[in-house]
Specification:
Elements lengths: L14 E5 L4 E8 L4 H15 L6 E10 L1 H19 L4 E7 L4 H11 L6 E5 L3
Parallel strand pairs: 2-3, 3-4, 4-5
Antiparallel strand pairs: 1-2
Length: 126
């Protein structure tokens, strides 16, 4: 599997980084790129390859806002994790939210309903 290249955060795209020691893919910031599908396609390809490893992967999300097309892309990523979970891979999701942004908690709860894999919803520390 190729090494993941960090995708730097912009005004409309999140920071996407990989911590190989803990096998954690982190996505943080806001997500409303002009073309969400183009932005998330290489991430999905990398996730698909990473999930072939039996060691699994954790997806750590701290996204304060995402537009509808980014939401669809995130659901596609969760589907990849769910499929890996069904094959017995050690996968999990951590969704971080800011209590001052109730929509971020609602979004986390909506996504959690879509999967059966371990999915923790964690309030950000102040």
């Amino acid at each position: 599997m190729r090494v993941f290249d960090t995708i730097q955060q912009t005004v409309s795209t999140p920071l996407v980084s990989y911590e190989p020691g803990g096998r954690v893919l982190a996505i943080s910031g806001e997500s409303y790129p002009e073309n969400s599908f183009e932005f998330y396609a290489p991430i999905a390809q990398w996730v698909k390859a990473a999930l072939a490893d039996p060691e699994g992967l954790t997806l750590d999300i701290n996204v304060s806002y995402m537009n509808s097309s980014s939401t669809k892309c995130m659901l596609d990523l969760l589907d990849l994790f769910e499929d890996a979970y069904g094959r017995g891979a050690a996968v999990s999701i951590i969704w971080r939210y800011d209590r001052e942004n109730p929509r971020s908690l609602d979004l986390a709860e909506e996504f959690k309903e879509e999967v059966t894999l371990p999915f923790a919803i964690v309030e950000l520390e102040e």
